TrEMBL record:
<dbReference type="InterPro" id="IPR017689">
    <property type="entry name" value="BamD"/>
</dbReference>
<dbReference type="InterPro" id="IPR039565">
    <property type="entry name" value="BamD-like"/>
</dbReference>
<feature type="domain" description="Outer membrane lipoprotein BamD-like">
    <location>
        <begin position="37"/>
        <end position="222"/>
    </location>
</feature>
<keyword id="KW-0732">Signal</keyword>
<keyword id="KW-0472">Membrane</keyword>
<dbReference type="InterPro" id="IPR011990">
    <property type="entry name" value="TPR-like_helical_dom_sf"/>
</dbReference>
<keyword id="KW-0998">Cell outer membrane</keyword>
<dbReference type="Pfam" id="PF13525">
    <property type="entry name" value="YfiO"/>
</dbReference>
<protein>
    <recommendedName>
        <fullName>Outer membrane lipoprotein BamD-like domain-containing protein</fullName>
    </recommendedName>
</protein>
Length: 295
């Protein structure tokens, strides 16, 4: 009985290996075939059945065979989407662009132009990484909108651009905050400049209120670490920034902290004025002493 079971199990294993080998052999025979029409049909079947890896191998094999022929347009199209479904967005983008460059008047040119831009969008990295592909995605999506302003995809492209701009805003905001967190005088000044640059580049940013408050804080810390003779002017800038902030955000959640910075800046100004007065008096006394004749 035990021996029979072993025989059955062994036979089943041999059959399974044979089936696997047969399937592999069928695909390899298809690749080696000179019947390009059959190979093309089978490639499309693999594609439709979502067997994209095998479909791509066959599409690549067929690319040179159909170059310049009517079937080439479909082949470019399938190849682009096959790479896309395999999540090879760099290759997909290349083939979508190749399609639009080769067949600019095709009814699928608009679609492929959009998909090429969308691949850039998918390649846009997380906020903490270099944003080169984010800028490229914005450029490609904007080009699509310019070329096809009446397309039903134009609004989708616009929405994607906004998502990318939100990412750039977040990165710029966090980069500016890094200067503030470093805690050195020059870094505080750099933070003020960085916040201002972000607000200029993204005037409608959702971080505007917080950045304007942090600019006041950074300017205060910068003034506080400055030499006494420069503090009056720099604390004065804190008051100017405070007034602009309160005018723009009278009910700000940062109001209490902003008010405290204002009071501290006013104290700093008085301290600086007192120092300047004392310095001037000491200088005058020194000059008088120098002018007094010696007996």
């Amino acid at each position: 009985m035990f021996i029979n079971r072993q025989i059955v199990a062994g036979a089943a294993l041999v059959l399974l290996v044979a089936l696997v080998a047969g399937c592999k052999s069928k695909f390899e025979k298809l690749r080696a075939s000179n019947n390009i029409a059959q190979k093309y049909q089978e490639a499309v079947k693999y594609y439709n059945n979502k067997k994209y890896s095998k479909a791509l191998i066959l599409f690549d094999d067929l690319m040179n065979k159909y170059r310049g022929q009517a079937e080439a347009e479909d082949l470019y199209y399938y190849t682009a989407y096959t790479n896309y479904y395999l999540r090879d967005y760099t290759s997909a983008r290349f083939h979508f662009k190749q399609f639009t460059d080769t067949y600019p008047n095709s009814t699928r040119a608009e679609e492929c132009r959009y998909m090429g831009a969308y691949c850039y969008f998918l390649e846009s990295p997380k906020t903490g990484l270099d944003q080169e592909y984010t800028y490229r995605a914005i450029e490609a999506l904007q080009l699509f909108i310019n070329l096809y302003p009446n397309s039903e995809r134009a609004q989708e492209a616009s929405d994607l651009i906004q998502q990318l701009r939100d990412k750039l805003e977040a990165k710029a905001f966090h980069n500016a905050k890094l200067y503030l967190d470093m805690g050195l005088s020059d870094d505080y000044r750099a933070a003020v400049i960085a916040f201002d640059n972000v607000l200029r580049e993204f005037p409608d940013t959702k971080y505007a209120e917080e950045m304007e408050f942090l600019s006041i804080k950074a300017q205060y810390l910068y003034a506080n670490q400055s030499s006494t003779r420069r503090q009056e002017e720099r604390f004065g800038e804190v008051l100017d920034m405070y007034n602009n902030f309160i005018s723009a955000y009278p009910e700000s959640k940062f109001r209490k902290d902003a008010d405290q910075l204002k009071r501290d800046a006013e104290i700093g100004i008085e301290r600086a004025k007192k120092y300047t007065t004392q310095l001037a008096a000491a200088s005058e006394t020194k000059n008088e002493a120098a002018d007094t004749p010696q007996n």
